[in-house]
Amino acid sequence: MDNTATQWFDGREMEMVHKMFRREFGLMPGLLCGVTDPERAGIVADHFEAIAATLHHHHQSEDEDVWPLLLQRVGAAAAAPVESMETQHAQLADALSGMQTRVREWSAAPTANVAEILAKDTQQLVWLLNEHLGAEEEQLVPLMERHITAAELQEIVAKGGAIGATGDPDSVPLAFGMMLYEADPEVVDRAVASVPSPLREVIRDLAQQAFAAHSQLIHGTPNPSRSTEIFGRITHPGWLR
Fold first, then answer.
1. For all residues of the chain together, what is the average pLDDT?
2. Rounded to the nearest 5 degrees, what angle is found at the Cα of 133, between the Cα atoms of 16 and 35?
3. Which residues have C-beta within 8 Å of that of residue 41, sequence separation ≥ 6?
4. How many CB atoms lie within 10 A of CB 95?
5. Where is the Hemerythrin-like domain (predicted)?
6. Considering the entire predicted model, what is its pTM?
């Protein structure tokens, strides 16, 4: 590929998405603990299902769109880390599916004892997710920055791909807000600029409002703990928020 004036993928965009997953999954154990009210349990279960679906979509797009492109460009140097990421994606998908079922069953008749068990099991899931995201950032994101262009990633995003939301237009403001909350300002500006007009003119405000309202409902504050704060407290898989 001709490197002249090529704008390569910026790894800070992946960091933006990973921070969202670290934050929202990292806060899940605390959301589960002590909940016995069915209405509140339903809200927590819905939130867990939504972020789990977003993570699944993100991983699916990487497996179907990003990794094949990277293998085509890099070849053997990417083969081992790609295989490892695909294996981890499958393991996380199985773990998430089982946890979603258990959380949904609990929400129908919530008890504090079961909530405590789910919270502790979710800690283990969050630990595994953080390990996976860290490995991806270390092993594959640098290759993406050298071998995949910004335009190519934008095409994947446009069809609801690896950096994007789940493809549901109604979810765009909230998904945007969840990602922008901890994003680098330069990345935020570029993300906003990529949104088609006339939505471009209002997406920043819509995203901030949607995220603030959602976070107030889920976390009890429009400004939840950031991923760096959450994972700064984690030293082993048995941590609890």
1. 90
2. 85
3. 35, 106, 107, 110, 115
4. 17
5. 13-143
6. 0.91
Helix (H) / strand (E) element for 40: namely helix 38-61
Q: Is 51 domain-assigned?
A: yes
Candidates 162, 163, 179, 166; CA nearest to 62 is 162
Query: Cβ contacts of residue 26 below 8 Å, gap of 6+?
Result: 126, 130, 225, 227, 230, 231, 234, 241
The answer to whether residue 4 sits within a structural domain is no
Question: What spatial distance separates the first Cα and last Cα of the chain, rounded to whole Å?
Answer: 47
- Is residue 3 domain-resident? no
Number of domains in the chain: 1
Range with the lowest mean pLDDT among 4-8, 47-51, 76-80, 222-226?
4-8
Closest CA to 71 of 138, 144, 152: 144
The SS3 assignment for 184 reads coil
C-alpha to C-alpha distance for 110 and 139, rounded to whole angstroms: 41
Q: Which residues contact 97 (CB under 8 A, 6 or more apart)?
A: none
180: closest CA among 146, 154, 204? 204
Q: Which of 26, 6, 16 is nearest to 162 (CA)?
A: 16
Q: Is residue 160 part of a domain?
A: yes
> In this structure, what CATH number is given to the domain that contains residue 113?
1.20.120
CA distance 165 to 233: 28
Domain of 163? 10-232
Using CA atoms, how far apart are residues 129 and 6, in angstroms rounded to an integer? Answer: 32
